[in-house]
């Protein structure tokens, strides 16, 4: 079915492809960032819960008296296999959830997928809260909650990137990263606060609290509009126009809204010509179409998004957030390892807002390149200092300071940067799946690192201690070259211009690329300033060249 919507006024002016935005509209886009809390809290709270004495006792039946004696203290723990199962089952859910989210976001809409994700998450949390000594509820509960987090984490990035005004898209999506850091901080505080409780509230409170995030996000999103790009993809221009007017805070019949809509439509038509959409499977296959050697092919963009998230995990950041307490304990000279962990989490929270400004001021490329350089220098300093003089309390203090500087670099660069970029590099046709796959890659590597790290640092295995930072530093060298050779500058461009830029330039020259024409003009869709929009639906196969 083809949709005839009458005339849309299109523009040939590359600067006018986006309508101005009101404060209320900014606030609407910013609210969605709240979804980051799920991500952070979920990553963080379980480590705390698994260390709560009451929970250990409940899961193992071991007597508390083991804790009184230095010799038996270490035996008071949940067996490793059980711990890894409880921790990693969530990642399995998030991984699958993020992949499915791509489909759902195209079928039922971005906003609805997030709301649905919140409901699924609530079911998972209720099961976990109701759990007791066995694994019968906690495991399915975490798996289901994982699906919910996967839906939410992948779709929020997609939604925010699609509704945010181009000039501050980077800053707004960085707000999502900020919420992740707050989630991590809340998780460590709550689990710390309840660790001495001697009844089920010790673990039920940190688990149940998460329901609050889901309820706030779902209710808030209920009042927000759907993404206009989703409606364009569905071929429903009237609704696209209506929601675009809402997210920009403009009148529905405003000329600027018409022009922005025309550009989104023209870009979509262009993409549909290049790679027509077919059946369900062929639409998945589209994510992997094109040559490996052409940097702007769909295949290359999918590899870019998924590898970028992998590299973000390779920076080693979660070593600090997941294993920080144990690492600081091993350093020996630290009195309160928990406090140091709390400080690192706080540095993460407090540094992130700088990225709101930096990502729009300097751009994505410089941030990732300089960020990797900053991180690798800090990591090698920590590794060398710890290896040479790790028993000296002054050296340990210096190491902790450099770890904090390292976190500062991550929080202002790769932390937000990876999320911002995956929301920008995919064309509309494969955007939801591309973002879903990239998010799934983040969770997959997050999990792989969580599983293998103990083998690198635990006493009975690798016992690497500070030397583990040689590994993270080495991986950060790869991140540096990766950013230099493969990351495009997408700052200030509309998502449609990003698409064009990736066709016409290379990562190294991308920062100098300037739009010279609009999609509407290029497609020959402007006729005395107007475009007759015939938006092909995704289900409809179009032959190349048969546009309008
Ligand atoms: C990463 C997480 C990490 C967090 C730390 C996120 O961007 O994807 O894995 O725990 O940043 O702030």
From TrEMBL:
Record-linked PROSITE patterns: MFS, SUGAR_TRANSPORT_1, SUGAR_TRANSPORT_2
Q: Is Phosphoprotein included in the keywords of this UniProt record?
A: no
Q: What is this protein called?
A: Monosaccharide transporter
Keyword Transmembrane helix in record: yes
GO CC terms, sorted: membrane
InterPro entries per the UniProt record, alphabetical? MFS_dom, MFS_sugar_transport-like, MFS_Sugar_Transporters, MFS_trans_sf, Sugar/inositol_transpt, Sugar_transporter_CS
Question: Which spans are transmembrane here?
Answer: 85-105, 112-131, 137-159, 171-193, 205-224, 314-332, 338-359, 366-386, 398-422, 434-457, 469-487
Enumerate the spans annotated as Major facilitator superfamily (MFS) profile domain.
Answer: 28-491
GO molecular function (one): carbohydrate:proton symporter activity
Pfam families for the chain: Sugar_tr
Xref: SUPFAM superfamilies: MFS general substrate transporter (SSF103473)
Q: How does it sit in the membrane?
A: Multi-pass membrane protein
What family does the database annotate? Belongs to the major facilitator superfamily. Sugar transporter (TC 2.A.1.1) family.
Q: Which UniProt keywords apply?
A: Membrane, Transmembrane, Transmembrane helix, Transport
Cellular location of this protein? Membrane
Q: Which Gene3D superfamilies match?
A: MFS general substrate transporter like domains (1.20.1250.20)
Q: What is its main location?
A: membrane
Q: Which domain of life is it from?
A: Eukaryota
